[in-house]
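Hey team,

Filing this mostly as a record. A colleague (T.K.) asked me to run one chain through the structure pipeline before their review meeting, and I want the input and output archived in the tracker in case anyone asks later how it was produced. No errors, nothing strange. Just documentation.

Input sequence:
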Amino acid sequence: MTTLRMAAVAANFDRDLEADFTRIEKLVATARERGVRLLALPEAALGGYLLSLDGTAESPPALRPDGPEIGRLADIAGDMVIAAGYCEDAGEVRYNSVVCVTGDGVLGHHRKVHQPLHEDSSYGAGAGFAAFDTPVGRLGMMICYDKAFPESARALALDGAEIVVCVSAWPGSRTNASPDLAQDRWKRRFDLFDRARALENQIVWLSANQSGTFGSLRFVAGAKIVDPGGEILADTGITEGMAIAELDVRRALETARSSMGHLRDRRPHTYISGGDARTAGVGSARIASAR
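Output structure:
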């Protein structure tokens, strides 16, 4: 049996990049001491998120994916696999992105596809979802609002992702906000999406999130690890912290899919209404190999 110890972080990051790296170094040291091999940090862990979602907020510092900051993150990772969010400098366009690194360099990259409220005033939209191989298994990544769309996680699962890392800067409700963040309706949605996406695709799910406050936003924290049956293995609740869990990922996937295989038992031809039928069979080879 080969188990993987994973961790997802709820923490507060801001515009001070040096302070962000100091925080990351401490988190990585703690995770390493506890035997963690895969660590998920929040959306905008490098440079902080937007100060508001009204379309007027200044953008975080834009970093090149091949620049010194991502190189520094890789150096900190060493033999660990780390996912962290940042504002990507792509020339004339900036993207809300997440990068996955080890000490050997960049393993995977994702640009946020779905943009809530006025986020499109600050970022361009990503073009799709793709899984990639890492030393801890085949991973997929997404950012925050991406997880509100079932197609996002399904695309990654069909591409063979065993583990999906979702990094977020998910705030509490902007209207009728509850004084008790644990009872906030946006917090309930955040948790529901995490469990539903893991269960419907029968995958392992790591959810990292910002905590505390930044500008006008109050983040719900709620970093967690969810197994392929939709059960929460570890959760930070509404506070800053690190959710850690250990799991034999391959065995967990095989067990979850042994009787009712949600990917195996799909009927793609029945789901298409006015769409492009050419995409219906995408990923069938990887699904067969995952049985």
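Quick notes for T.K.: The chain has six helices and 15 strands. The radius of gyration is 18 Å.
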